[in-house]
Structures are given as structure tokens and as C-alpha cells.
């Protein structure tokens, strides 16, 4: 039986595009799940072998539900990462007479898509109510199912091919350089194409009240000339002001440098948890 890969659905999300690219050449059937958390739960409970979820957007930053769930709720290694260009569009139900922007009363989308188009919406639809839903495609589907309502969705071009929708305006994101990084997670390994870039993501917990602890963590990488591409703090959820540090390292796990750096970090009382060591892919076009 074919293994399954879950993605944030319904049909027509950016995550579906990422899932299709990441599963090219693999014998996997792709199944939509209604939320990021349900995707990660399905993989964790082995209902499906793999999952694809968004991790970070170049305009809006980290998708907190993904990162927090991977930190606190499930133990699922990151197997691959894909950066995909994102183009947001304003979509309305297909009608005989096009709906002018001034008639739109309600805009639905995923919070990240709304945030990426914030200036456009503020300038062009100042009176419309903004409502967030679990995905851009869910918003598109809801708008298409209510053609009698003056509603719009923010989402991918692909939605116009999937649902009875039309463009009210194309390319509405506030910055043209808009990318989202998606991660593939799963408990089984997967034979993935070779990539020129590999990464390792770790979670570091600092000891309490230790002056200069973060400085020493960074020093362990600096003097080994190991490049870091992201450092982000997330609340431990145990007390106000307590943080984990999520660190992306620009190389895969090796036998010498990274074990040495981790041992040095642990020696000052920090904990290190690996979230994955994986290939990174960059895709230049989107639908
Ligand atoms: O709603 C979608 O289409 C998604 O795939 C989610 C998501 C996200 O969470 O960032 C993915 C890419 C875009 O940045 C906007 C939304």
C-alpha cells in the first residue's frame, strides 16, 4: 500500500504546492488535513507516514503553531525543507458582473496571508471585515460556496482553477520578495534528491540565571566557523521570561564539529535537542 503524506488542506493551499514538489518521484498519496496541528498529530499517531507544514515566511516570520507543536507536543524529525515563492491574490466568486473592490464587505484568509497583504487591504478595502481561517484554500472554498455574498479570499492562483472563483486583483502581497519555508516531517526516512545545501535545527534550553549563557552557546559555533542562519526564541510556556532558542545551523550533522559544539554547550548546563538534519531545497516558481 502507498504511504500517505498529510498537508494543510483543503485542496489549493500553498502547503499543497510544497507537498507536491517535495513528494515528486516518491510513491506517496497526498491527503489534506484541516489544520497544521492535525497534520502533525496524524504523523505522530502514524495515521500517515509524512506531513508537510509551513514553518516561516519572509514577510511575516515564524508560523508559531508549527514550531510550538514540534517543540512541545510531538517528537517528529524534520526530514527536508523547501522554500517556495508566495504570490497572494484577491479572489471573488465567479459572477456575471465583476464585483468592484468597494462592494467587498468581508475578506477571509489564513493569518499569514492577511499579514502579507496588510497594506493592500488597508488601502483598498478599509471598510471590509477581515476574518482569519485555517488556510488560504479554505477561505477560497468558502467564498466560492457563497456567490451571493460580496466576500473575497486571499490566496493562490491555483484556487481559480480548483473553485469557481475569479481574480478581483492579482499579486496583492506588500513585498514582492515573498517566500515561505515548508518542512517535511516523518518518522521514516525518505530517499530524497541530493541538495547543495544541508541544515540542522536544534533547540537549546539555557540554565536559569547564567550570565552570558547565550553568548557562550554562540561562541561554540563561532570559533568552529560553523555558520548559523537563524536564531529565534520561543517561550518555554513554563514561566514568563523563560525561553528556548531554536537555532538553524548551515550544515548537516557530522561526527566531529557539531557533536563537539553540542558537548561544549551542554557543559555549561544547557540542553540540546536536535529537531532534524536535512536537505534544503529552493523552488523558484509558483503556480
Ligand atoms: O493557507 C495556506 O495556503 C498555507 O499553506 C499556509 C500558509 C502559512 O501558514 O504561512 C503558507 C504560505 C503562505 O505564507 C500563507 C499561508
TrEMBL record:
Give start and end of each ACT domain: 202-279
Q: Which CDD domains match?
A: ACT_CM-PDT, PBP2_Sa-PDT_like
* Keywords from the UniProt entry: Amino-acid biosynthesis, Aromatic amino acid biosynthesis, Lyase, Phenylalanine biosynthesis
Q: Where is this site: Essential for prephenate dehydratase activity?
A: 180
Question: In what pathway does it function?
Answer: Amino-acid biosynthesis; L-phenylalanine biosynthesis; phenylpyruvate from prephenate: step 1/1
Q: Which GO MF terms does the UniProt record name?
A: prephenate dehydratase activity
Q: Which Gene3D superfamilies match?
A: 3.30.70.260, Periplasmic binding protein-like II (3.40.190.10)
**Which EC class is this protein assigned?**
lyase
Tell me which InterPro entries the record gives.
ACT-like_dom_sf, ACT_dom, Chor_mutase/pphenate_deHydtase, Preph_deHydtase, Preph_deHydtase_CS
Its cellular-component GO annotations read: cytoplasm
GO BP field: L-phenylalanine biosynthetic process
Keyword Amino-acid biosynthesis appears in the UniProt entry: yes
Q: What is its EC number?
A: 4.2.1.51
Annotated Prephenate dehydratase domain residues: 4-187
Catalysed reaction equations from the record:
prephenate + H(+) = 3-phenylpyruvate + CO2 + H2O
| Protein known as | Prephenate dehydratase
- Biological source species: Brevibacillus antibioticus
Q: Tell me the gene name.
A: pheA
Amino acid at each position: 500500500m502507498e504511504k500517505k503524506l498529510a498537508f494543510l488542506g483543503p485542496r489549493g493551499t500553498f502547503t499543497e504546492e510544497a507537498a507536491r514538489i517535495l513528494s515528486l518521484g516518491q510513491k506517496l498519496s497526498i491527503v489534506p488535513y484541516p489544520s497544521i496541528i492535525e497534520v502533525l498529530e496524524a504523523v505522530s499517531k502514524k495515521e500517515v507516514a509524512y506531513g508537510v507544514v509551513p514553518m516561516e515566511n519572509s514577510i511575516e516570520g515564524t508560523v508559531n503553531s508549527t514550531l510550538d507543536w514540534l517543540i512541545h507536543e510531538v517528537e517528529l524529525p524534520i526530514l527536508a525543507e523547501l522554500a517556495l515563492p508566495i504570490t497572494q491574490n484577491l479572489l471573488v466568486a465567479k459572477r456575471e458582473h465583476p464585483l468592484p473592490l468597494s462592494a467587498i464587505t468581508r475578506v477571509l484568509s489564513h493569518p499569514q496571508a492577511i499579514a502579507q497583504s496588510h497594506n493592500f487591504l488597508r488601502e483598498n478595502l478599509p471598510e471590509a471585515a477581515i476574518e482569519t481561517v485555517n488556510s488560504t484554500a479554505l477561505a477560497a472554498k468558502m467564498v466560492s460556496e457563497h456567490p451571493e455574498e460580496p466576500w473575497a479570499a486571499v490566496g493562490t492562483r491555483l484556487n481559480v482553477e480548483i473553485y469557481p472563483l475569479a481574480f478581483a486583483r492579482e499579486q496583492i502581497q506588500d513585498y514582492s520578495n515573498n517566500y515561505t519555508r515548508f518542512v517535511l516531517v516523518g518518522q521514516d526516512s525518505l530517499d530524497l534528491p541530493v541538495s547543495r545545501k544541508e541544515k540542522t535545527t536544534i533547540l537549546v534550553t539555557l540554565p536559569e540565571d547564567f550570565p552570558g549563557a547565550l553568548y557562550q552557546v554562540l561562541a561554540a559555533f563561532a570559533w568552529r566557523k560553523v555558520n548559523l542562519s537563524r536564531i529565534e526564541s520561543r517561550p518555554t510556556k513554563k514561566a514568563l521570561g523563560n525561553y528556548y532558542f531554536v537555532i538553524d545551523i548551515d550544515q548537516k550533522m557530522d561526527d566531529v564539529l557539531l557533536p563537539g559544539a553540542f558537548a561544549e554547550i551542554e557543559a555549561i548546563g544547557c540542553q540540546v535537542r536536535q529537531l532534524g538534519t536535512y536537505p534544503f531545497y529552493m523552488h523558484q516558481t509558483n503556480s
